[in-house]
């Protein structure tokens, strides 16, 4: 399109004669929602500095049709078709730009209303009492674990923590919809999935205290848990790197013809990373059975989504890569459960990637290194914490089914809290990992230089024990 | 079987070859008609016509292709991924014929996204496949370096041994000819500084075959630095090297030419230049020992130090930038372990400290040449000509 700007006056003259452009020249507004291309610019010798192709946000057009209607509007030209790399494409003589946004945002799938009542006629996957109660109690467990461990960090008992408050429905709802063979590649705000699969409160506590009972041998900072046994990869801090890796895992699963898929989680911020785009594009080309679940919780530390992207959220990006997508109410556990189950089915049986955008709100601070009241109001946080709580909403539904009671609630909460306090006590008292663990696992087989260094270190410790802490085993 | 072939070759070749020792330093001595045994150097293509034609010649490109083919055939989990590796037969034809033989599920042509396919390779390795990821040149690996370092290198450690990453990243590294700054960077020092990675750089076809096979079989992530200009060079290969079970150990350097006056360390293409320099030095009475590092991480410090303790002088040569380069590490290692054996300061030859210029005359000045190595060796031997004359 830029080439047009440099065309000569003569060319512009010639173009003016074409019927379609006369409308623009005469200043008539187009019936179609496209940008006006200011033809008078043809005559100016220098290129105008601001973009000619979009009228600017303030003049945002009457953006009418969705992409679908746009493609079918030129019925009179349908019989004329062009052949280009990529296939046949119909052409039109009417110059029309696809608007940058649709009039209506992509609707959000939900089955429970704000009070936890099932919406009539909704598509939803029925769950048994057993599953529903398990889902609910795990959501509560997650919430209690987060608040207790957060407090413990504030008391200085370990260095770092981050909570999942407000996103319990996404964590547990999606976890419940998957099978144990589905391989999870999380961002870091999905401990609920690990919890669902059987990671114990003691294991969580061991990880944050980095003691010798930790499955990770104290190698990682808090909340960077993982479990090969539970098919949940060890959390890696750089954002969105797990997305193309998930495609690789999905490819492996496809090669093994396993009835399983890869599931990668990311936040709204993660979708800005290059890896997000590479992963989605490649997954579609590779036909990999992977489900991308994006927790759009409105904030990436202090970056609000309006500063993160200008598209209608993340769901619309799926189509750009040829990926089936859905937007779901992330605070509705049943909707998440239903959507993820369907997505998983499609991914495995049709061997395709699927994108699920779950809208939610990050109630807690980004992490213990953040104080979100600095960039958002207390009222806003309070509102989402109480009135839009996914736990309360699901609880209402479960109670209405007659599957839960106030008494069970109290019992559950106090039991979990007790277990956690116990776990923390035990974890805190447990020894730290031995010095040997400093040197192991760098490679499959320990290299000679590290073996040598370990030996030297042990000798130094033996010679100068007074300079060495007594509570760390050698 | 291999033994028989070797013996066969020996008798056919008409001169005596010492038994190749696979795991130690490989030596060959040739008795040149009546004279004292001369250490046989890896000859450059043009000299080969003088030797017996019974020894098979193999181009580095062929060596890499055959190694890939054999490993893919032996293990169905091995697969190749990269730009142009399939239909185009490889940007440098290294993967020629592989798509046809193994199909599109094992030879994947990727979209242009290094970050994408490297990430995918790492993920596939997490789950148990053995990917070989090809970068069109390691310059482009920069767009994927986070996956290589933060994921591939560190995962085994961070996951306490639960997640291993048996992946190989390979492709041409360093300068080619007339390709400018963004296509000529040497990444040996970059990757070799990272614990968790293994970094290899072959010179000859034997190196290429043996090291690539070792890399593919290794459960750790390996960065395999080839050289575009070496792809078309031929080297003699023995039957042992041609055998499909052939494998070289990772972490062992090779003494390409024995000497007693000065040690020259090099890797990849520079080994060829160093050997030429050694020839020139020999005529002036300086016997240079040329070490082909083969493995940058782990670095074979014991071979290097043993050599320096013998010769008492060291010249490190590399194509990459001087600061924090491979030569810097070798110097430090030698000073730490063999300081009292040094009779002269260590000489370090590296590429010029500028982004690679394009013009041929400028490029020539930016890359180490044979003369630079000769001069450095002479300086180390206190036989140098004054700087003004050498300039």
From TrEMBL, chain A:
> What name does this protein carry?
3-methyl-2-oxobutanoate dehydrogenase (2-methylpropanoyl-transferring)
Where found?
Mitochondrion matrix
Tell me what organism the protein belongs to.
Citrus sinensis (Sweet orange)
Tell me what reaction this enzyme catalyses. N(6)-[(R)-lipoyl]-L-lysyl-[protein] + 3-methyl-2-oxobutanoate + H(+) = N(6)-[(R)-S(8)-2-methylpropanoyldihydrolipoyl]-L-lysyl-[protein] + CO2
Q: Which CDD domains match?
A: TPP_E1_PDC_ADC_BCADC
The entry's family comment says: Belongs to the BCKDHA family.
One Pfam family matching this protein: E1_dh
Q: Offer one example of a GO biological process linked to this entry.
A: branched-chain amino acid catabolic process
The cofactor named in the record is: thiamine diphosphate
Extract the GO molecular function terms from the UniProt entry: branched-chain 2-oxo acid dehydrogenase activity; metal ion binding
UniProtKB/TrEMBL annotation, chain B:
**Out of the domains of life, which is the source?**
Eukaryota
The alphabetized UniProt keywords are: Pyruvate
Protein name listed in UniProt: Pyruvate dehydrogenase E1 component subunit beta
Q: Which organism is it from?
A: Citrus sinensis
């Amino acid at each position: 399109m830029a080439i047009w700007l440099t065309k000569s006056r003569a060319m512009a003259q010639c173009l003016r004669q074409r019927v379609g452009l006369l409308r623009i020249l005469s200043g008539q507004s187009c019936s179609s929602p496209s940008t006006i291309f200011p033809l008078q610019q043809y005559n100016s010798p220098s290129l105008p500095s601001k973009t000619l192709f979009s009228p600017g946000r303030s003049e945002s057009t009457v953006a009418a049709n969705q992409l679908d209607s746009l493609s079918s509007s030129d019925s009179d030209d349908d019989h004329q078709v062009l052949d280009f790399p990529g296939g046949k494409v119909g052409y039109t003589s009417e110059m029309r730009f696809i608007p940058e946004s649709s009039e209506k945002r992509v609707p959000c799938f939900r089955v429970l209303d704000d009070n936890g009542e099932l919406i009539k006629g909704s598509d939803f996957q029925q769950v048994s009492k057993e599953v529903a109660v398990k889902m609910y109690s795990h959501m509560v467990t997650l919430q209690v674990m987060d608040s207790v461990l957060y407090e413990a960090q504030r008391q200085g008992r370990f260095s770092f923590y981050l909570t999942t408050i407000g996103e319990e429905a996404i964590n547990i709802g999606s976890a419940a919809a998957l099978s144990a063979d589905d391989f999870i590649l999380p961002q870091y705000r999905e401990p609920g999935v690990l919890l669902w699969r059987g990671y114990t409160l003691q294991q969580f506590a061991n990880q944050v205290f980095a003691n010798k009972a930790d499955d990770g041998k104290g190698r990682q900072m808090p909340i960077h848990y993982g479990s090969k046994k539970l098919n949940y990869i060890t959390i890696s801090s750089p954002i969105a790197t797990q997305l193309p890796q998930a495609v690789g895992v999905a490819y492996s699963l496809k090669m093994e013809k396993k009835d399983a898929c890869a599931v990668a989680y990311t936040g709204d911020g993660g979708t800005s990373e290059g890896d997000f785009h590479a992963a989605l594009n490649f997954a579609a080309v590779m036909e990999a059975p992977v489900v991308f679940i994006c927790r759009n919780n409105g904030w990436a530390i202090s970056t609000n989504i309006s500063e993160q992207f200008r598209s209608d959220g993340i769901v619309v990006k799926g189509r750009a890569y040829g990926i089936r997508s859905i937007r779901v109410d992330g605070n509705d556990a049943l909707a998440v459960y239903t959507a993820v189950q369907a997505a998983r089915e499609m991914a495995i049986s049709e061997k395709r990637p699927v994108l699920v955008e779950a809208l939610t709100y990050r109630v807690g601070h980004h992490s213990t290194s953040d104080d979100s009241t600095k960039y958002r109001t207390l009222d806003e946080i309070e509102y989402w914490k109480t009135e839009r709580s996914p736990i309360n909403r699901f609880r209402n539904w479960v109670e209405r089914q007659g599957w839960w009671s106030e008494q069970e609630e109290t019992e559950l909460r106090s039991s979990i809290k007790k277990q956690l306090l116990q776990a923390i006590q035990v974890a805190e008292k447990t020894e730290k990992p031995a010095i040997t663990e400093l040197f192991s696992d760098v490679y499959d087989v320990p290299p000679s230089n590290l073996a040598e260094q370990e030996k030297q270190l042990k000798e130094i410790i033996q010679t100068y024990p007074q300079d060495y802490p007594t509570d760390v085993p050698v | 079987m291999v033994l028989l072939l070797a013996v066969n070759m020996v008798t056919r070749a008409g001169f005596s070859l010492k038994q190749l020792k696979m795991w130690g330093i490989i030596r060959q001595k040739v008795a040149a008609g009546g004279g004292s045994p001369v250490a046989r150097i890896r000859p450059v293509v043009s000299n080969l016509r003088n030797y017996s034609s019974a020894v098979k010649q193999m181009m580095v490109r062929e060596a890499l292709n055959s190694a890939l083919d054999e490993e893919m055939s032996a293990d169905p989990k091995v697969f190749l991924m990269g730009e142009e590796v399939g239909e185009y037969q490889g940007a440098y034809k290294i993967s020629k014929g592989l798509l046809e033989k193994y199909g599109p599920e094992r030879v994947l042509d990727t979209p242009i996204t290094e970050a994408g396919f490297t990430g995918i390779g790492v993920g596939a390795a997490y789950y148990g496949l053995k990917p070989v990821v090809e970068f069109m040149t390691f310059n482009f690996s920069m767009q994927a370096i986070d996956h290589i370092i933060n994921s591939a290198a560190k995962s085994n450690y961070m996951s306490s041994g639960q997640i291993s990453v048996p992946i190989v990243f390979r492709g041409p590294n360093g300068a080619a000819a007339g390709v400018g700054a963004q296509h000529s960077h040497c990444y040996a020092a970059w990757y070799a500084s990272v614990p968790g990675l293994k970094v290899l750089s072959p010179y000859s076809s034997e190196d290429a075959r043996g090291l690539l096979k070792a890399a593919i079989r290794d459960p750790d992530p390996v960065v395999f630095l080839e050289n575009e200009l070496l792809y078309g060079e031929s080297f003699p290969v023995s039957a042992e090297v041609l055998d499909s079970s052939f494998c070289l150990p990772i972490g062992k350097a090779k003494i390409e030419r024995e000497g007693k006056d000065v040690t020259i360390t090099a890797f990849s293409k520079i080994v060829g230049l160093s050997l030429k320099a050694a020839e020139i030095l020999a005529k002036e009475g300086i016997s240079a020992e040329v070490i082909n590092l083969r493995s940058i991480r782990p670095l074979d410090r014991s071979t290097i130090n043993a050599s320096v303790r013998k010769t008492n002088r060291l010249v490190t040569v590399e194509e990459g930038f001087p600061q924090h380069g491979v030569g810097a590490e070798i110097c430090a290692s030698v000073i730490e372990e063999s300081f009292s054996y040094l009779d002269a300061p260590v000489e370090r030859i590296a590429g010029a400290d500028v982004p690679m210029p394009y013009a041929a005359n400028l490029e020539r000045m930016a890359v180490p040449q044979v003369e630079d190595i000769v001069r450095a060796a002479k300086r180390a031997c206190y036989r140098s000509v004054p700087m003004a004359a050498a300039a």
